[in-house]
Backbone:
């Protein structure tokens, strides 16, 4: 079954995945340089999971 997603939504999803990837790369860089204390759990390769889940939310939905 094919799902017809408008091009504008696809572009929004791609931009969000790209933004998450860039953030993750920066986190890894900062963590590798020892610039913060604690653990880093990179999400690289899983960006579509977050974007797909969030794009399905309604304005009155909540996630934690």
Residues:
């Amino acid at each position: 079954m094919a799902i017809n997603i408008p091009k504008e939504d696809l572009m929004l999803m791609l931009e969000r995945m790209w933004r998450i990837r860039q953030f993750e790369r920066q986190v890894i860089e900062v963590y590798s340089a020892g610039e913060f204390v604690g653990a880093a759990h990179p999400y690289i390769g899983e960006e579509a999971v977050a974007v797909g889940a969030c794009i399905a939310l309604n304005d009155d939905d909540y996630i934690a």
Q: What stands out?
A: Residues 7-32 form the longest helix (26 residues).
